[in-house]
Amino acid sequence: MGDILQLVLKRLGLGVITLLVVSILIFFAVELLPGDIAQAVLGQGATDETVAALRQKLGLDQPAILRYFQWLGGALTGDFGVSLVSGERVSAAITDRFVNTLFLASYAAVIAVPISIILGVIVALLRNTLFDRVANVATLTSISSPEFFLGYILILYFAVKTSYFPAIASLSADMTFGELLHRTFLPALTLVLVVTAHMMRMTRAAIINLLASPYIEMARLKGVPPWKIIVKHALPNAWAPIINVVALNLAYLITGVVLVEVVFVYPGIGQLLVDAVAKRDFPIVQACCLIFAATFILLNLAADVGAILTNPRLRHPK
Amino acid sequence: MIAPFGEAEVISSAFAPPDANMLLGADQLGRDMFSRIIYGARNTVGLALLATMLAFLMGALGGLLAATKGGWFDQFMGRLADVIMSVPSLIFALLMLSIFGTNLTVIVVVVAVIYSPRVFRLTRAVAGNVVVMDYIEAAKLRGEGTWYLIRKEILPNSTAPLIAEFGLEFCFVFLLIAGLSFLGLGIQPPTADWGSMVRENATLISFGEITPLIPAAAIALLTVAVNFVVDWMLFRSSGLKEV
């Protein structure tokens, strides 16, 4: 058991280092700004005094290294400073929206994961049949279409033409859970379509790869019934690639969620980020980027740890 | 020219329905949708091609050098690629655009930087297999320089996977640029561009009109087509894909 722990810890350490490097990247990218933040915010017409005053207010008169550690320390305790545009605390603006985004992503994941794994296995078993060909074309189409295309098609057919679901996912505090699920169904469905396609294809590839191995051939020649081959022989070895596929695709959700939130005017941090970029509100941009990047790194980490735990071969590197 | 009207030419009232003169109707300012789709094809596809080529130039050069030189250069480039790939591409692009503002040069360079690590890894892997071959050893013993090795020995032997990757990469780049334009942070008006055309006409969807779907469909059609060609090429070139 000791060597597993060691491997996992090593991977965790690597993840923390990656996160640290990314935080440095996010923080110092803003330092690359021609001039500095104070000038960028106030624009060309500002006098030297106002720029100096804002610089002092933002603490820009201190060296960048010092400010980085202050920022990082603040970020760890959930304090991301003050918005340049509204003067509001960034953490206050982010918290609710982050919960909303998490809700939307988990809603999509809860639907997408079981469906895509089951479909992926079915398609792998039926490979080279008509069903497989159709599924291949459908998933490839869904992967290659931009999220906003799928989103607007869903709006057109399920909201405007038939009004089964609302086109705009506005949330209010006094909604029941059922109502919440109903209102956010279309954005979740858009994400499900994109992620399911990816996951199905990767599950299919993993299973086909597995079914080609000699021990499955042996079981088949012995006359083991097909369902038993799948459940007893293939599945134990398939967990590792499937867990990997799931974690990697949840990471896809992160990019997808930004576009989907904008399409459906959903109050999440994706939309906040896009607004902040347009307004050049750097503390919010930095905070959102850090949150997205951290989630992304965390999911990749989960994929690797899952693979280590379910695949004994990885524990003994050659 | 194929387009019947100019790119930014206002020819009728806003959101006019399609007629014999305007095949797809007018947009939010009364410009001809059909003409703008055609101009948009040039702008969007051209920009994506430019960014993909830049990404390939950087990634492939880095990969080839890393494979031939090895050592600390290889290590450094590998870690750099890891860091860039550990930030989601759209998020990275948004961060950079918030800092450098949205002009075309920035978009092309940023998108190229984001997608070059993929090319770097592939080139390095492919070239890494070639570098250990005997004929490379022979060329080295002949006293040939690194550039000769890359141009005459390694590159000709690693083009096939790179061409397939070019198609895939183009799709990613194209979707990212279209996504940025859709968010209003890519190609700026009045230049016609498919992503921003979706955004500009998005309000029409609530009246049951399909106008915003036309440029979106154009984006989807192009990427789907490229993807199918790449899929077919991979299928043809590797006999081991199917059992």
Structural class of chain B: mainly alpha
Secondary-structure element order of chain A, as H and E? HHHHHHHHHHHHH
**Largest beta-sheet details of chain A:** none
Query: What is the CATH superfamily classification of chain B?
Result: MetI-like
Shape of chain A: globular
Number of strands of chain A: 0
Which runs of chain B of at least 5 residues are low in confidence (pLDDT < 50)?
A: 239-243
Compute the number of helices of chain A.
13
The share of residues in extended strands of chain A comes to under 5%
Helix content of chain B: 55-70%
Low-pLDDT residue spans of chain A: none
Rounded to an integer, what's the Rg of chain B over CA atoms?
22 Å
Oligomer: heterodimer
Number of structural domains of chain B? 1
InterPro entries (chain B): BP-dependent_transpt_permease, MetI-like, MetI-like_sf
GO biological process, one term (chain B): transmembrane transport
Main location (chain B): membrane
Domain ABC transmembrane type-1 (chain B): 41-234
How are the SSEs ordered, and which strands pair?
The complex is a heterodimer of chains A (318) and B (243).
Chain A: H1 2-31, H2 37-42, H3 48-58, H4 64-76, H5 90-125, H6 130-144, H7 147-160, H8 177-183, H9 185-211, H10 214-222, H11 226-263, H12 269-279, H13 282-310
Helix pairs in contact in A: 1-4, 1-13, 5-9, 5-11, 6-9, 7-9, 7-11, 9-11, 10-11, 11-12, 11-13, 12-13
Chain B: H1 33-69, H2 71-85, H3 89-100, H4 104-131, H5 134-141, H6 146-154, H7 159-182, H8 194-200, H9 213-237
What can you tell me about this protein's structure?
The complex is a heterodimer of chains A (318) and B (243). Chain A is mainly alpha-helical and 318 residues long. Chain A folds into two domains: 62 residues, no CATH class; 216 residues, MetI-like (MetI-like fold). The longest helix of chain A is centred in the last third of the chain and has 38 residues. Chain A starts with a helix and ends in an 8-residue tail after the last helix. By secondary structure, chain B is mostly helical. Chain B has a single domain, classed as MetI-like (MetI-like fold, Orthogonal Bundle), CATH 1.10.3720. The longest helix of chain B has 37 residues. Chain B is elongated, with a radius of gyration of 22 Å. The C terminus of chain B is likely disordered. At the A-B interface, helix 1, helix 6, helix 7, helix 11 and helix 12 of A face helix 3, helix 7 and helix 9 of B.
